[in-house]
Amino acid sequence: MGNYDAVIIGFGKGGKTLAQELAAAGKRVALIERSEKMFGGTCINVGCIPSKSLVHSAALSRDMGGSFEEKTHRYELAIAEKNKLTAKLRQKNYKKLNDLPNVEIYVGVGSLRDAHTVIVERAGTTDELKTDLIFLNTGASPFIPPIPGLKESKYAYLSETLLDLERLPKRLVIIGGGYIGMEFASMYQNFGSQVTVIQDGPVFLPREDEEIAAAVLQSLRDRGVRVLLSAKTTKVTDMDNHAVLNVTAQDEEVTIQAEAILVATGRRPNVAGLNLEAAGVELTERGAVKTDIHLRTTAPNIWAMGDVTGGLQFTYISLDDYRIVTSAVLGDGSRTTKNRGAVPYSVFLDPPFSRVGLSEKEAGDKGYEIKIMRLPAMAIPKAQVLQKPTGMLKAVIDQRTGQILGAHLFCEESYEMINLIKLAMDAEVPYTVLGNAIYTHPTMSEAFNDLFRG
Ligand SMILES: Cc1cc2nc3c(=O)[nH]c(=O)nc-3n(C[C@H](O)[C@H](O)[C@H](O)COP(=O)(O)OP(=O)(O)OC[C@H]3O[C@@H](n4cnc5c(N)ncnc54)[C@H](O)[C@@H]3O)c2cc1C
Ligand SMILES: NC(=O)c1ccc[n+]([C@@H]2O[C@H](COP(=O)([O-])OP(=O)(O)OC[C@H]3O[C@@H](n4cnc5c(N)ncnc54)[C@H](O)[C@@H]3O)[C@@H](O)[C@H]2O)c1
């Protein structure tokens, strides 16, 4: 039995950062992680970092061209490179925490006995930890739809297992056209696979600005990605060297063959087995840990961070959740989910798509009198230098105040540009400031001179 000031379940972004902060404040901390392969969490092991390493390698491979065998060889090298990177980061993350004298890492599955007792279980041993404060940072796991034959298929993968597939699939089918589906479609198309995306709804990227979603869809189709909308997979059958998917797409029956199937139909909070009810921690209707604006759960000494709270699933949100929780337990509680500012995001396509704030429709529905500003990517000199003229930029402006309500950038390097707009929105700087600023040249950011000319 151990006594701690704080116990953190899950070695994710929020958890590991909070462990360091609490340790620096003199607290005795236990950090529990169920798998030695997950020190540092989803992002560095099976999420953002490995997928972006492969996105980068795929773009290089596409530029080199060649036969499918040559592409396969480059793919194998890319997987090996990615494995090297994740192993390095995992070890670094472990060491950083393990070197702290008042942090103890437990490898095992954590659960609650009551609001002040955490159990850690692993083969044959059980530890019981007594503590004042508990932090839940257990992340999320893929949801697998109940499609006959899918779970049993040896050709079916989740994002984390596909990232380890060493042989480039000639044909890849992706079930789900969300963030993971789009990024993997773009990446595997660049590596040289023939990619088909099966999306259940009639609208492609329904949460995105209509005009931008149409431009992204067109670009993927121009690159050879087959995207089926209003499509339902009814059965998966394994053959000797491939799977056959029966799909109903807009009332037509089609069969699709694939060497690999990626299931990318959303990720659900990891709450199973935590025994939360024993401590009075309630769930939302959607099965996430219920929290208030300080990320406190319904148990007064228990807090939650990251994907398990059912919020936006991004690494930097888990990191910001750590700031909010730190503010609550070590500070004055002034940082909350309500004042964290605008939340940007990027989908790493080719070119990438990035967004912050409201779409044109959302701004209209909220009653704003709006002005729309647009710029085709081909008008940006740097896009021409990079030979990446595809895409468009769109901004939604509050006509009355000149504030930027939203920006939607589908162009090369948009993942860097969007952070500047987020800053302008948080600082309540009118669009004209970005429109009249001096930028270095030739850069993608200087496009703001034209986008926001007004
Ligand atoms: C393929 C992919 C690509 C992504 N790309 C991006 C991206 O480009 N940018 C971005 O911002 N986000 C991206 N995300 C999302 C991002 O990875 C997650 O939002 C983020 O990692 C969540 O962090 P977290 O702190 O909530 O938990 P996690 O990092 O998921 O950590 C939770 C940890 O808890 C452990 N755990 C769970 N239950 C228990 C238990 N009972 N006991 C002990 N340990 C337990 C898990 O093993 C895990 O290590 C991507 C996700 C995926 C899958
Ligand atoms: N660049 C990034 O920041 C990045 C990259 C990848 C993932 N992520 C995070 O990971 C999370 C999970 O990604 P995801 O793509 O799994 O989820 P998602 O919620 O983004 O998309 C899931 C998609 O699958 C579709 N779908 C569900 N069931 C289906 C079915 N039976 N047949 C066909 N389509 C079906 C849904 O309509 C939806 O479009 C995202 O919410 C995101 O926050 C972020």
From TrEMBL:
Binding site for NAD(+): 176-183, 266
Residues annotated as transmembrane: none
Record domain FAD/NAD(P)-binding: where: 4-316
Active site (record annotation): 441 (proton acceptor)
Binding site for FAD: 52, 110, 307
GO MF assignments: flavin adenine dinucleotide binding; NAD(P)H dehydrogenase (quinone) activity; oxidoreductase activity, acting on a sulfur group of donors, NAD(P) as acceptor
InterPro entries named among the record's database cross-references: FAD/NAD-bd_sf, FAD/NAD-binding_dom, FAD/NAD-linked_Rdtase_dimer_sf, Pyr_nuc-diS_OxRdtase, Pyr_nucl-diS_OxRdtase_dimer, Pyr_OxRdtase_I_AS
One Pfam short name: Pyr_redox_dim
Family assignment from sequence similarity: Belongs to the class-I pyridine nucleotide-disulfide oxidoreductase family.
Protein known as: FAD-dependent oxidoreductase
